[in-house]
Design goal:
transmembrane, L-PG_synthase/AglD, cell membrane, single chain, mainly alpha, Flippase-like domain-containing protein
Length: 308
């Protein structure tokens, strides 16, 4: 069973990496042209900020996992999360959840618990992202929310759904529907709060990565540009996630980001930022998965040889 799981895991990992590479190479000509207008320093800083955002994203998921019970070591949770996240490059948003559930079993995290945490962490990211988008866009460019008026209505409902009594009741219902009612999973209030705090840090870092790219093209009005960049990226990410048939939100996210940035840059510059941002995020995803794999291997070697 273990060998079959390893083969399936390796195959899934290879497919996800191949699709990740295709998502970049298919637009290499556009990317080469875009990079002639952006300074290498801006792209480098944006990449570092995107990587930092991914760390906060993993810690948001880990905080929710800790809110349901014992957690594996940090290197192990990084491997579960970042390798599972490669599933978002396979069409259909469900694959990242499935991959995390399978990877978690190797560290004695049940499928039910993995699924609850994966879906719960996504809900936290969506709600916090929507809230940040509404606040920042309303502060910097109130008119930009007319296109996404639904976010203003949905965010309060999302916050209500994340309250532990409501959240745990929904979880119990879902587990019964999936015939997993014999595996009760409850999330503590501290777990939800910790997850939301790290999610907010993630959105700030992701927003800054977009801001660095936008400011390279539009250096005026720094405060407004920072707010719009953060809000536009958060809202674009939410839109991209909700379009489940698009791998990693490819297409819808870029279109939403172009619309969101319309108040600070023209459409051609906004499209350039969206394209470079996409590639930066893909590189960050691949880098995070690679580092997690190396860290996991080093941990296993240390455990096998013993500490000096």
């Amino acid at each position: 069973m273990t060998s079959r799981r390893k083969v399936l895991g390796t195959g899934f990992f290879a497919i996800a990496i191949a699709l990740l590479v295709v998502s970049v190479s298919s637009r290499r000509d556009e990317l080469a042209d875009a990079l002639t207008r952006l300074s290498p320093a801006s792209v480098a800083v944006a990449t570092v900020l995107a990587c930092a955002g991914l760390v906060a994203q993993m810690l948001s998921w880990r905080a929710l996992l800790a809110g349901t019970g014992p957690t594996p070591p940090l290197a192990a949770t990084a491997r579960i999360y970042y390798h599972g996240q490669l599933g978002k490059y396979v069409p259909g948003s469900v694959w990242a959840v499935v991959a995390q559930a399978e990877l978690g079993r190797a560290y004695r995290v049940s499928r039910a618990r993995s699924a609850v945490v994966a879906l719960g962490a996504l809900a936290v990211l969506l709600v916090v992202g929507g809230a940040i988008a509404v606040v920042t866009l309303a502060a910097a460019a109130p008119g930009s929310l007319t296109t996404y008026w639904w976010a203003v209505a949905v965010v309060p409902l999302g916050v209500l759904g994340l309250l532990p009594p409501v959240f745990n009741r929904v979880i119990a219902w879902l587990l019964r529907a999936l015939r997993r009612g014999d595996e009760p999973v409850r999330v503590s209030g501290a777990g939800v709060l910790g997850s939301a705090t790290w999610a907010a840090a993630m959105w700030v870092l992701f927003g800054l990565h977009a801001f660095v790219l936008v400011r390279d093209l539009h250096p005026d009005d720094v405060a407004a540009t920072a707010l719009v960049s953060t809000g536009a990226f958060a809202l674009a990410w939410v839109v991209g996630f909700l379009v489940v048939i698009a791998p990693a939100g490819t297409g819808p996210r870029e279109a939403a980001l172009v619309l969101g940035l319309a108040t600070v840059v023209d459409s051609s510059d906004a499209l350039l930022v969206a394209l470079v941002s996409r590639v930066v995020m893909v590189v960050a995803d691949a880098g995070a998965a690679g580092v997690a794999a190396l860290a996991g291997r080093r941990t296993r070697v240390t455990a096998g040889t013993g500490s000096p």
